[in-house]
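Lecture 7, part 2: worked example. A protein chain together with zinc ion.
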Amino acid sequence: MRWSSKRLVARRDEAVRQLSLLGDFIPGSVNETWSKCGKPTCHCAGEGDPGHGPRLLWVRYEKGKTVSRTVPKRVAERVRSGVGAGQRFLEQVREISEINAVLAERGLVVPGIAGREGTGSGGSGQKRGSRG
Ligand SMILES: [Zn+2]
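Predicted complex, written out as structure tokens:
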């Protein structure tokens, strides 16, 4: 992808705008889990029974540790959408970071040194087509 810097900046600004809309995001992920209570008379003791559930588990990493919490049904939707927003948040941050890296790389190329402009036969590989 060889976008112009102007286009990259526009894309980045759009990603920043998207970020600002994701204020209610939650880090981590949610998973459905099934568990067995251990009572021999319970249905979950039967072979092939998946157990009790689904139980919604919110898992996140904090200071290098995995933290998991059971999500009550009444807040399940909020946590699900918050976690979805959190994943979009990370995607936007990644995109902004990548774009800024490209822009920073381009900033490292000083035109006067990399190839003088306007000397006619530069040979720097730039095809501008402003001949005549
Ligand atoms: Zn059981």
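Helices lie at 5-20, 73-108, 111-114. The first helix runs from residue 5 to 20. Keep this in mind for problem set question 3.
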